[in-house]
Amino acid sequence: MHERNPLSKAGIVAALSMAALLGLSGATSAQTATKKLPPAVSTLLSEAKAEGYTANIYGQSANPSQAAEFSKRISEFYGVPITLTMFGGLHAQKASELSQVTKAGAKSGIDIFWTSSSIAGVLERGSLVVPLDWAKAFDFDDSARLGKTGLHSHDGTQATVIYNTDLIKAEEAPKTYAEIVSNPKWKGRIAVPRAPNVFIYISYALGDEATRTLLKDLMAKQEAKILPTYPDVRNRVGSGEFAIGIGVDATELKRRGAPVEFAPIDPVVLAPWGFWLMKDAKSPATGQLFAYWIRTPEGQKALFDILGLSLASSADTDLAKLAVGKKAISVPHDFMIDILPERLPVYSGLMGIR
Amino acid sequence: MHLRLSGIWVIYVVAATALVGVIVSIAGNILASVSLGADFGTFTVLNYAKLVADKELLAVLGRTFIQGAGSVVVMLAFSVPIAWLIARTDLPWKSVVLALLTAKLAIPGFITAMAYVWLFNPTSGIVNRLLGATGFDATPIFNIYGLHWICMLQGLVLVPACVFMILPAFSNMDATLEEAAWVSGVSRTRTARRIILPLLAPAVIAAMLFFFGVAIESFDFVGLIGMPARIEVLSLWIYDATHSVTSEPNYGFAGAVGMVMFGMSCIAIMFYVRFLREAQRYAVLRGKARHSEPMRLGRWRWVAVAFVGIWVLLAFALPIVTLIWVSLVPFLQPPSARAFNNISIDSYGLALGYLGAPLANTLIAMSGAVVLALAWSATVSWVVTRSRSRFGRWVDVIVFLSPTVPSMVAAVAFQMLGISVQQWLPIYGSVWLIVIAMSARTLAFCTRTVNGAALQIHHELDEAAYASGVSPFVAFRRIFLPIVAPALFYAAMMVGMLTARELTLPLMMNTGHSPLISTLIFDLQTNGSFGIAAAVSLYMIFVLLALVLVARRLSGVGERSAVNVRSVRGTAFSKWRRQLGRDHASSQSTQAVKEAL
Questions:
Q1: A158 CB-near residues (< 8 Å, 6+ apart)
Q2: Shortest Cα–Cα distance, A109 to chain B (Å)
Q3: Cα four-point dihedral sign B128, B134, B140, B143
C-alpha cells in the first residue's frame, strides 16, 4: 500500500513555489513602493485591478514566450500580476477595418494600438483613439509626445540599412545613402521592401529631390529588387541572396548569428512608433500602464531584450550604438501626416507600385 | 406529399444559404470596385478609369493570361496522368501517393517558392554556386526570376487539388466502355483519345477553368519570384492596392482589378456552360454497372512510378526538406558547413509549447468549415446537376465566379457581414466567421469536385427512383449522396487543408483571443522565428495527415464506398426494372462505344 508521504517531491515543490511567490510579491511590492510612480499611474494601478490586470495590445507580433516575458517583466515592475495579449497583423488594413467596426457600433477588441505615425493618422481621422496627452499625464518630457494623441514608444528602423558581412567588408559598407547607389558592384544585390514610406522617412533627412534621385538610381542603375515584406528583405540579406537591405534592422538576425550588420549610414533617420489608446478599450487602465512602463528604463530594456526594439536614446541598445558620432534625425509625426499623401504616389510610382 | 415537399425544400434552403455566402464576396467585390479607396459608402468610377488609363494594362493582362494558362498546362500535365494512375491502374503505393498529395496541401506555398529561390536564385542559388556561377562578377546559369518559373511552380503546387477534383470522375467512369473498346480491337491510345478523354472532359475542363481562376488570383509565387523581377500581373496589382503599409488600403482599385479577373473567368465559364448543356452525353453511371479490375501497367509500372516520383521530388520533397532544414537552423540560410555546425532541434520543443490553443482553434475552424462546406456543396451540386431547373445553371455560374474575388476583398466583405449581423449573431472576431467565409470561398472547388462526379450519373437513376415512388429528398439522400460520397470526401479534405492554411481571413479578423496556427506562423515569421514557424508547420502537416488517414479509414473512400455506389446503383436499377418491366441497358456500353467511335 502506498501512503502519501507528507514530504513528497510534489509537496516540497509546492511549498517552495509558495514561499518563492510570497517572497517575490514582497520584493516587488517593496520595489514598487520605492519607485516614484506619477500619481496618474498610481490611480491607473487601482483601476487596472477592476480590469483583471489584462490588456490587449495590437501592433507588434510576439510569440507566446515573448508575450509571457513581457507579462512577467511588467508584473515585476508594478508588483501586480499583469497579463498581456500581444498580436500583430496588417496595420493599415486593421485601422481601416476598425473605422467600419466603430461605425457599426461593434467593438475593436483592442486596448492599445501600437504603430507608426502614418497609420495613427488613419486612427485619428476615424476618431478611434482617445485624445490623451500622455506626456502631461505621466510627467514625461515633450519627446515622449507623438502627435497630439500618441506616446512615443521606440524608434523604428524603416530608414536604416543593413548589409551581409560575408559579402561586404565593414570598411566597404555604405556610409551614406548616396554610396548605396554609387557602387556598381552592388547592382542587383540590393533589396527593398514594397513600402514607399521607407523613402518618405529618408526624404525628411535628404529632401524630396535628393530622395527622388536616390530612388531613381536604386531602381534603374542598381536594379534594386523589391520584396513583399520587411522580414523578406531582412532574411534574404541574412541568407546571402542580397548584399544590402534598405528599411530594416539587423538586431534580431545578429542575435541568431546571421552575418548581418547595420550600415553606418550618416544621418541615422529614425521613424518614431507609438501607443494610441483606443476609445472602445475594454482595459484602458492596464493598457496605459503597459505604455507607461515601456517608456521607463526597465520597459525599454525589456523591449530591447525581447523584441530588439528601443528608443535611440536608450543606453546599450543597437540604435544607441548606431547613432554614436552621427547625426540622429527623428522624423516628426506631423511630417508623416502632412507630407505622406503628397509624396506617397510619387515615390510609389518611382518604385513601380500602383 | 407534404413531407416530400418539406424534404426537397431543405435542399433548396441549404443551397440558398450557400448562395448568400458566395454572393457576399461577389457583391463585396462589385461594391468595392465602385467605392473610393476603403470607404464603401462613397461611390465612384475612378477605379475603372484608373485601370483603363493604365498603359501597362494590356501587357499585364497578357502576362496574367500566360501565368494562368501556363500554370494550368503544367498542372494538367501531372494531375491527369496521376489521377488516372490512381483511379484506373494497379499503380503500386497508391496510399502513399494519396498521402503525399494530401500532405502537400498543408505545405504553405511560400515554402515551395523559398526552396526554389534558394536553389536557383542568380546571386547565391545553391545550383549556381555548385556550378561556380555566383559571386559579384559571375554570370548566373539559372535565374529563378522569370514568368516561366512562376507557371511551373504554381502548376506543380496545384496538382493535389486538381487530382482530388478529378479523381471522383475518374473513379466513377464505367470501365465497361474501355473494355468494350479493347474487345472490339480498338487500340489503347485510340481508346484513351476517343473514349476515356471525352468521358472525362467535363471534370477535366471544369478543373482547367476553375484552376485558371485560382492561378491568376494566387500570389505566393508572384510575390517571392515575380515581384523582385518586376513581373507585373493582376494579382500583384491587387497586392499593391490592398497591402498599403502607410495609408488605408485601396479596396476600390483592387475591386476593379478583381472585376477584370471576373471578366476573364466569365469567358472561361461560357465554355464550361456549353459543356454542361451537353452533360448527359458524358453520363455513364446508369443502372447497370460492372466491377472491373484495374488496368495492369505491366512493364510500364516503373515508368508510372518514376513519373509520379518526379512530381513528388519537385513539389513535395524539396519543400519538405526545406521546411525541415529551416526548422533546424537559427536563421534562414542555405545549407553550408557553418550552417551544419549550428543545427539544433530546439525549435521543436518551443513549437510544441506554442501549439495548444492555436491548434484547438484551427481544428474547430476546420471541422466547422468542412461540415458547412459539405452541406452547401452537396445541396448546390444537386440543384445544379439534378434539379433540371434553369435556376441551377445560374447558381453554378455564380459559384464558379467566386474564386476570382481577391482574397483580401473577400475578407473585407465577410468582415462587413460579421459586423452587420453582430447585433443578432455575435460572430465578428470569432472563428465562426472564418468558418462561414472559408466555406463560401471553397464552395466553387467543392461543387466542381462534386459536380464532376454527379454529372456522370445518368438521369435514368433519378427516373428509376421516382418511378419507384421514392421522393426527391430520399433520392438525394439514398442515391445522390452515396454516389458522390468519394467526391465529397476529397472536397472535405481540401476544405480542411485550405482552412488550416488560410492566413488572410484569420489575420484580418484576429482580435488576439482566437489565434489559429496560420496566425501563429505569421507572428513567428514576422519576428524572425522561422525555425519555430517551420516546426509548427511540420507538426501541423503531421496532424493533418493523421486526420486524413483516419478519415479515409473511417469513410472507406476508394474501397468500401465504391462497393456502396455499385450497390446503390444496382438497387435503384432493379426497382426501376421491376416497375417498368423492361430492360434496355444490356447493350448500352457497346452502343456508347459505337457512338463515340
A1: A116, A195, A197, A198, A201, A230, A247, A271
A2: 6
A3: positive
Instruction: Determine the Cα–Cα distance for residues B14 and B489; give it in Å rounded to an integer.
Output: 19
CATH code for the domain defined by B48-344: 1.10.3720.10
- Cα distances (Å, whole numbers) of residue A132 to A57, A109, A275, A296, B327: 17, 19, 11, 19, 44
Q: What's the CA gap between B16 and A101, in Å, rounded? A: 27
Rounded to the nearest angstrom, the minimum Cα separation between A244 and chain B is 12
Query: Which among A85, A338, A354 is the top mutation candidate for probing chain B, defined by the most B β-carbons within 10 Å of its own β-carbon?
Result: A354
In chain B, residues with a C-beta closer than 8 Å to the C-beta of A121 are: 247
pLDDT for residue B112: 85
Give the residue among A241, A302, A248, A238 at the shortest CA–CA distance from B530: A238
The number of distinct structural domains making up chain A is: 2
Query: Between A and B, how many residue pairs show a Cβ–Cβ distance under 8 A?
Result: 182
For A117, which residue in chain B has the nearest alpha carbon? B246
Choose the closest CB to B419 out of A86, A106, A235. Answer: A106
Of residues A89, A92, A108, nearest to B246 (C-beta): A92
Interchain contact, B529 vs A63, CB within 8 Å: yes
How close does chain B come to A178, measured CA to CA in Å?
20
- Cell numbers describing residue B222: 508572384
Alpha helices in B292-389 (DSSP H): 301-311, 318-328, 337-341, 346-385
Q: Which domain holds residue A211?
A: 161-264+327-351
Ordered by start, the domain boundaries in chain B are 1-32+349-597, 48-344
Sort strands A190-193 and A225-227 into parallel, antiparallel or unpaired: parallel
Between the alpha carbon of residue B432 and those of residues A88, A288, B161, B509, the distances in Å are 21, 31, 24, 11
| A23 within a domain of the structure (yes/no) | no
What is the DSSP code string of B150-191? HHHHHHHHHHHHHHHHHHHHHHHS-HHHHHHHHHTT--HHHH
A220 and A184: one domain?
yes
Return d(Cα B122, Cα A141) in angstroms, integer: 51
Torsion sign over Cα B218, B223, B224, B228: positive
Nearest to B68 by CA among B203, B235, B187, B276: B235
| Binary contact (B227, A110; C-beta < 8 A) | no
**How would you write the pLDDT of chain B (597 residues) with one tens digit per residue?**
444 556 788 899 999 999 998 999 889 889 989 998 877 778 899 999 999 999 999 999 999 999 999 999 999 999 999 999 999 899 999 988 988 898 888 787 877 888 888 889 898 888 888 887 776 667 788 999 999 999 999 999 999 999 988 988 888 777 777 777 778 888 878 887 887 777 788 788 888 988 998 898 888 889 889 999 999 999 999 888 888 877 788 889 988 998 998 888 788 777 776 766 665 555 555 545 555 678 888 889 999 999 999 999 999 998 899 889 989 999 888 888 888 998 999 999 999 988 988 999 999 999 999 999 999 999 999 998 888 777 887 888 888 877 778 887 888 888 888 888 877 888 877 888 889 999 998 998 899 888 877 877 777 777 887 888 888 888 888 888 988 888 898 889 889 888 887 877 787 766 666 788 888 887 887 777 888 988 998 998 888 888 878 877 776 654 444 434 444 444 444 444 444 444 343 344 444 444 444
CB B566 within 8 A of CB A272: no
What's the ipTM?
Answer: 0.79
Asked if A340's CB is within 8 angstroms of B247's CB, the reply is yes
Do A69 and A206 fall into the same domain?
no
| Residue B414: partners with Cβ closer than 8 Å, 6 or more residues away | B24, B25, B28, B433, B436, B437, B440, B505, B509
| CATH code for the domain defined by B1-32+349-597 | 1.10.3720.10
CATH number at residue A62: 3.40.190.10
